[in-house]
Every structure is written in C-alpha cells, then in structure tokens.
Amino acid sequence: MSTEAHDAGGVTGYIIHHLTPLSIGDNFWTFHLDTLFFSILLGGALILVCKTAAEKATPGIPGPLQNLVEMIVEFVDTQVKDSFHGRSPLIAPLALTIFVWVFLMNFMDLFPVDLLPGLASLMGIDYLRVVPSTDLNATFAMSISVFGLIIFYSIKVKGFVGFGKEMLFTPFGPWMMPFNLLLKLVEELAKPISLGLRLFGNLYAGELIFILIALLPWYIQPFLSFPWAVFHILIITLQAFIFMVLTIVYLSLAHEDH
C-alpha cells in the first residue's frame, strides 16, 4: 500500500490517489498522460510482436511465438467470417487490432496495484493510473472511432440517399419520419455509448476491487488477490472479445444495402 497516500487521506485518499490520472491542461483540453503513454506503449508492443512473428515465420515447425500469433489470427478471422456479411479488407485487421490491443490494456489490471505507481513516485511522479481501459476517455475514444467507421461505411455502401431513407423511413414508413429519425438517432448513438461504457465500467470495477484488496493486511491479500486475478483474466478476455464482436456486427449492419 502507498503509505504516503494512505496517511494523507486514509482509505478514501488511497483509493482516490490510485484512480487519479497523471494529467496536464484544464477543462476540455486536459490530457491524461498516463493513458496516452500506456496505450501507445502497448500498441507499439503489439506491432513489434506481430512484426517479429511475421519475420520469423516458417512453413516448417512453428515456434511458440508463431503458434500464438497464428492462433489469435485464426480465432479473429473465424469471428469475422461468422459475423461480417459484407466485403471489406479493413474489417479483419481492425478486429484483430481491437481484440489484442484492448486485451493488453485490460491486462495491465493484473499488475500489483502499488508496483508501477510506486516506481513512478521514486521519479517524482505523484499520480499514475496504469490501466488505460479504466479511463473513460480511452474507451470512448475507441468507441467513437468505431462509430465514425459505421457512419462512413453506411454512407459509402448505401449512398447519401439510401442512408437518408434508412434514417427517415424505417421502421414505420414515410408517414412517421420524425419518430423514425428519433428512434434511429437513439439506436445509432447507443452503439458507441454502450461500447465505451461497458468496457470502462467492468475494468474500473475490477481495478477498484484490486485496490480494496490492497488495503487489507498483507497476510490476507494473497488469499483474495490470487482468486480474483484468475477470475479477472476471464473478465478482461471477455471484454476484449465483446468489444471486437460488437464492432464486427455493427460494421456488418453498416454494409447491408437493402
């Protein structure tokens, strides 16, 4: 446990300290430096691992890294074939990137609560939140990016006229245009909101439980932290999978031209 933070504000101060990001700027122009740093770091690690696996790939007996990458690629490719019914060279690479990147962000939750913030404090950094997916800005940034692709492909596949008809004439026909538009707006806006909030809520709650366990006496922590960590591995994998599958499904709907 961070003794300084605990002494400064007790249990509440300790929790707030761990959930406060390292940031600069004010109001709208506030940048969470730790979220940006770890997101870029994990994205770079993903690129490096995939590049290394591709360079060392062999048609003979594959190594452990090649096996792992091929297993993930085949898994994602199966999900795309089952859920995506259009034609686009972007969807499979996008789904692969989302699944692995979100998983790596979530995986940071398994590091001991005080490990990286403690190392950062030795370098004079007061706040450090190491799990990017516990930052609502990060999860919404990803979901809004997906939402932008949904709108782009909806217009590209259906055209402006077809997209306008879908927004105005469904589901109740042209005589209910204002009501149809209201329903479609709610339906479309619910997509990025549900994507962002689902990932943020689950990971924020998981991180909070780890922090609460860290507040307990040291001889009790292993009996709670290990089972929760094992269970949490399932949660972080499931959340990455859900984000990926919903992205594929939403983009598949955007490619349907009725």
Describe the structure in your own words:
With 258 residues, the protein is an all-alpha fold. It has one domain (3-254). The protein is 74% helix and 2% strand. It is built from 8 helices and 2 strands. The longest helix is centred in the C-terminal third of the chain and has 38 residues, at 177-214. It is globular, with a radius of gyration of 22 Å. The model is unreliable at 1-8 (pLDDT under 50).
Tell me the domain tally.
1
E-strand count:
2
| Cα radius of gyration in angstroms | 22 Å
Going by helix content, strand content and strand pairing, the class is mainly alpha
For the termini, the CA-CA separation is 58 Å
Strand content: under 5%
**Into which percent range does the helicity of residues fall?**
over 70%
Instruction: Describe the strand arrangement of the main beta sheet, using strand numbers.
Output: 1-2
In DSSP terms, counting alpha (H) and pi (I) runs of 4 or more, how many helices? 8
Q: Indicate the mean pLDDT.
A: 89
List low-confidence stretches.
1-8
Largest sheet: 2 strands, antiparallel
What sort of overall outline do the alpha carbons produce when their principal axes are compared? Answer: globular
Write the layout of secondary structure elements.
Elements: H1 3-19, E1 23-24, E2 31-32, H2 33-55, H3 64-83, H4 91-107, H5 115-122, H6 136-169, H7 177-214, H8 221-254
Antiparallel strand pairs: 1-2
Q: What's this, in brief?
A:
The protein is 74% helix and 2% strand. By secondary structure, the chain is mainly α.
Describe this protein with a few key phrases.
258 residues, two-stranded antiparallel sheet, 8 helices, 74% helix, disordered N terminus
